[in-house]
């Protein structure tokens, strides 16, 4: 099906519609998509987006889902997570990137590598690198804006590094409940244990996720593994 205008022009039309009718942006986006013959903006955008790994992941996830993105160091998991947050607007969501690993200048350099250096300045992407990041902090920041969210947290193993924060599993359960209640998508970046490097397997698996503290990984809906430039997405459990 051919669109009446390019995606970026349809998005501009949706912003104008939102202002004119006093409705939320995601509602305006869905109206525009319906006018093009699609069920929703996310379905339309996914169908006409370039098939990059991040866009393939966006195409496969649904509202309310929790996604684990796992890899050994140097295999691109943080850049993939950041790209998901950058592209969130293409499916009518507000992108958030929370990092306990990188400074804002680190994130800015990676945004530049993605060709999105100014995105955080416009508010299209919310970047948070504070030391207070935990499940409660993430949900409070997202709730400040009444919109559909796609949040990426970098990274799982650091969430409970402060003794004042709840245990890791309690935080993941809280994030899962929040995602379900608000229709948010929450992606957590995770390390893979170095013992995987000693194996001869082509891909890490759920048993290779590094867990210094107890965590039921069935709390995630989808698992995304990266290795040697390849990506594999699977359902948890």
UniProtKB/TrEMBL annotation:
One GO cellular component term noted in the UniProt record for this chain: cytosol
SUPFAM superfamilies: P-loop containing nucleoside triphosphate hydrolases (SSF52540)
Any GO MF annotation of the entry: DNA helicase activity
InterPro entries, sorted: P-loop_NTPase
PANTHER family assigned: REPLICATIVE DNA HELICASE, REPLICATIVE DNA HELICASE DNAB
NCBIfam families, A to Z: PRK05973.1
The protein, known as: AAA family ATPase
Protein's organism: Algicella marina
